[in-house]
Amino acid sequence: MTVADRPSSKQWQTLDKDLGRISQVEYATAYVSRPLVGPGIALIFMVLAGLAAGIFFGQFPSNFVVVAAAVVGAYMALNIGANDVANNMGPAVGANALSMGGAIAIAAIFESAGALLAGGDVVSTISKGIIDPSGMAETRVFIWAMMAALFSAALWVNLATKVGAPVSTTHSVVGGVMGAGIAAAGFAAVNWPTMGKIAASWVISPVLGGAIAAAFLALIKSRIIYQEDKIAAARKWVPILVGIMAAAFAAYLALKGLKRIIKIDIGTALLIGLVIGMLTYFITRPMIRRQSEGMENRNKSLKVLFGLPLVFSAALLSFAHGANDVANAVGPLAAIVHATDAGNFADKVAIPSWVMVIGAFGISFGLFLFGPKLIRMVGNQITKLNPMRAYCVALSAAITVIVASWLGLPVSSTHIAVGGVFGVGFFREWHMERRRRNANIARPAKLTIAPEERRRRKLVRRSHFMTIVAAWVVTVPAAALMSAVIFFFLNAVTG
């Protein structure tokens, strides 16, 4: 190359500018496409679920309805993972006991294990007796009612996740089944006493969960945090609290998570819990003593002692959640499969293995792709959590389910867990206000805090509180309305 052929400095500058523009286009493309990665993977999973249904269920056109139902069931499972699982992992992440990646990994493993190992092999196709299937005119009407219920519940949970509101997927399915049932067979088809119990659980679940969480936080504050020798107090009380946690979760899993293996009544479950709790106490006591050696007499040391039990509690909650709530995704799908195959509908049907796999993997994918938003909201944005407070939330969830089962009340794990977070936050507000009031007795008037400043220092975000409560209240009617509209559309198109 001659000197005349070499690019001039001006040409080099032009080339640099062109390359810079190309790199900017690449960055912009990556930035724009990043939000599409999650929905793209979710769409691929839904397509694969439909293909699996087509492979396992025979030839077209008889399997067309099942393929469509499998796609909608996969969509529902993705939304359960995105919304419901946050309630189990949010407190542990908010307390910094788990990283976001660690929480997602543990939840994915234990949710799938719970669904596949202990998920119920028989579910109520009419969602706990919400509607009477005998009121349906024909099998085709029943199939479209279940399809509408499943699709409306998935849409509602998806919308709630978008606005950052943890809602009950169980109540979403209940609302969907109720709305489709009314549209298909009239108001007489609905079991209104059962609906009344579910409506009562809207209040009972969060209040009971919050009260239990607040009670345990009060116990920890009085017996450990405010003691002169915190480490000595922790050596005495932490093994007791871990034993209570083990007893509660053993009873919880025996009662709710092992239905596929063996049916256990509440008395036997409590006995199992008592034995496991005692064993855990005697095993944990020397471990806590060794772990606490050399620790400073401060609250930061206490957080370390509660960290590992909190991780175990989050894992156990995920296992139990997978065992129970996977039916929300695949129950109506199993009903559609049975009705299409047998040509009739029944109160209870067996869940095929491939249907359970769709539910289990869908929950895991939904958690991985879309779960962090709700995990952060539950763990960080409602109120500030540390390992002690988050531990109280996890413990209250297990105990509340046991109490509700004993009373025969249908409860929502979402309402219990979020209610526990609110309970902890409101107790902290009340406790702080009481201490401030006592301190102000001996404080000059000019140093007292103005009411406006006290309102600003509230420990529970009122905006999140109102958003979540509003979402809870409208879940069943919103899902029911959408389900009725979808059923009318499906029935009109296919009728």
Automatic annotation (TrEMBL):
<protein>
    <recommendedName>
        <fullName>Phosphate transporter</fullName>
    </recommendedName>
</protein>
<dbReference type="GO" id="GO:0016020">
    <property type="term" value="C:membrane"/>
</dbReference>
<feature type="transmembrane region" description="Helical">
    <location>
        <begin position="465"/>
        <end position="490"/>
    </location>
</feature>
<keyword id="KW-0592">Phosphate transport</keyword>
<feature type="transmembrane region" description="Helical">
    <location>
        <begin position="413"/>
        <end position="430"/>
    </location>
</feature>
<dbReference type="GO" id="GO:0005315">
    <property type="term" value="F:phosphate transmembrane transporter activity"/>
</dbReference>
<feature type="transmembrane region" description="Helical">
    <location>
        <begin position="237"/>
        <end position="255"/>
    </location>
</feature>
<feature type="transmembrane region" description="Helical">
    <location>
        <begin position="198"/>
        <end position="217"/>
    </location>
</feature>
<dbReference type="GO" id="GO:0035435">
    <property type="term" value="P:phosphate ion transmembrane transport"/>
</dbReference>
<feature type="transmembrane region" description="Helical">
    <location>
        <begin position="141"/>
        <end position="161"/>
    </location>
</feature>
<feature type="transmembrane region" description="Helical">
    <location>
        <begin position="36"/>
        <end position="57"/>
    </location>
</feature>
<feature type="transmembrane region" description="Helical">
    <location>
        <begin position="351"/>
        <end position="370"/>
    </location>
</feature>
<dbReference type="Pfam" id="PF01384">
    <property type="entry name" value="PHO4"/>
</dbReference>
<comment type="similarity">
    <text>Belongs to the inorganic phosphate transporter (PiT) (TC 2.A.20) family.</text>
</comment>
<feature type="transmembrane region" description="Helical">
    <location>
        <begin position="261"/>
        <end position="283"/>
    </location>
</feature>
<dbReference type="InterPro" id="IPR001204">
    <property type="entry name" value="Phos_transporter"/>
</dbReference>
<feature type="transmembrane region" description="Helical">
    <location>
        <begin position="64"/>
        <end position="82"/>
    </location>
</feature>
<keyword id="KW-0813">Transport</keyword>
<feature type="transmembrane region" description="Helical">
    <location>
        <begin position="173"/>
        <end position="192"/>
    </location>
</feature>
<feature type="transmembrane region" description="Helical">
    <location>
        <begin position="304"/>
        <end position="323"/>
    </location>
</feature>
<keyword id="KW-0472">Membrane</keyword>
<keyword id="KW-0812">Transmembrane</keyword>
<feature type="transmembrane region" description="Helical">
    <location>
        <begin position="390"/>
        <end position="407"/>
    </location>
</feature>
<keyword id="KW-1133">Transmembrane helix</keyword>
